[in-house]
Design brief:
The protein is of the alpha/beta class. It is built from ten helices and nine strands. Helix 4 runs parallel beside helix 5.
């Protein structure tokens, strides 16, 4: 059995997953950087080889039962255990509810919710028998406050992850397994590049076109407060090394400001503050 800690990270080809895989490996976790398309693995493998760190790339599609089961089974067979699972794979479906197809919304949940459930179910038996383990679910500040329009499916999926994590945490705590949430604010990665726009949205015909333009302009101002994905990775590393990590772990000044606003403002005040922040371009920072 591998005596070092073994970590599995989904969605590792870029952004948070990429930075987390490298950081865990640099801290001597035997790390499996998993991704749906291993053709995107060149950069992370090049760094791992150059630095001689224990990082392996494994193909894993969180939307496929067989892919998840086969990959997790192979990792367990090779190491005898899994100590840390980081459920990071996910994306944002951008578009009004009216112009989003039901199939697109289902696909959002397939990746962001059922993908997390698949990988979690796959590792629980081993962690339960070990009597320890940490499951890290990458949520979002958008999993606690639905502040952004045109991200209804995304917000709903992250709200689902919050409830899933809270309940599961109670369910398996007696087996020594920690289940936690990472709640980043705006992250300066390729999240926007990976965003999928609803196919039904036509900027030349949509009744929402003007509002969409204002929201995207707001994104540009909010990005000034963004955190680098490596900051999220360090939060994950700290949680993975902690015997008793906190349930909720916000990342970024904007996330902290949003949580503060949620606790201090009424619903109407919160909505007004949010619209001022991303449309009037004041940014999500509260003193």
């Amino acid at each position: 059995m591998n005596m070092t800690k073994v970590a599995v990270v989904t969605g590792s080809s870029s952004g948070i997953g990429y930075e987390t895989s490298l950081l865990l490996a640099r801290n001597q976790f035997t790390t499996y950087a998993t991704m749906r398309n291993i053709n995107k693995s060149d950069r992370v493998l090049e760094i791992a080889l150059k630095e001689n760190i224990p990082l392996n790339v494994t193909q894993l599609d969180v939307n496929s039962d067989s892919s998840v089961d086969d990959s997790i089974e192979s990792i367990i067979k090779e190491n005898g255990k899994i100590d840390v699972l980081v459920n990071n794979a996910g994306y944002d479906l951008f578009g009004s509810l009216e112009e989003s197809s039901l199939e697109e919304i289902k696909q959002q949940f397939e990746t962001n919710v059922f993908g997390v459930i698949r990988t979690t179910k796959a590792v629980i038996p081993t962690m339960r028998k070990q009597g320890n383990g940490t499951i890290v679910n990458i949520s979002s500040v958008g999993g606690t406050v639905g502040l952004f329009p045109f991200s209804t499916a995304y917000h709903a999926s992250k709200f689902a992850i919050e409830g899933f994590t809270e309940s599961l945490r109670q369910e398996i705590a007696d087996f020594g397994i920690n289940v936690i949430l990472i709640e980043p604010g705006f992250i300066g990665s390729n999240f926007m590049d990976n965003m999928k726009t609803a196919k039904g949205f036509d900027p030349n015909k949509s009744p929402y076109a003007n509002m969409v333009q204002r929201v995207f302009q707001g994104f540009e101002s909010i990005s000034a407060y963004s955190s680098h994905p490596s900051k999220v990775a360090h939060t994950i590393l700290n949680a993975a090394n902690s015997p008793n990590p906190e349930l909720r772990n916000p990342v970024g000044k904007d996330a902290e400001s949003i949580f503060k606003a949620r606790n201090e403002l009424s619903d109407r005040e919160l909505e007004r503050w949010a619209r001022e922040s991303y449309i009037d371009k004041k940014g999500f920072i509260r003193q």
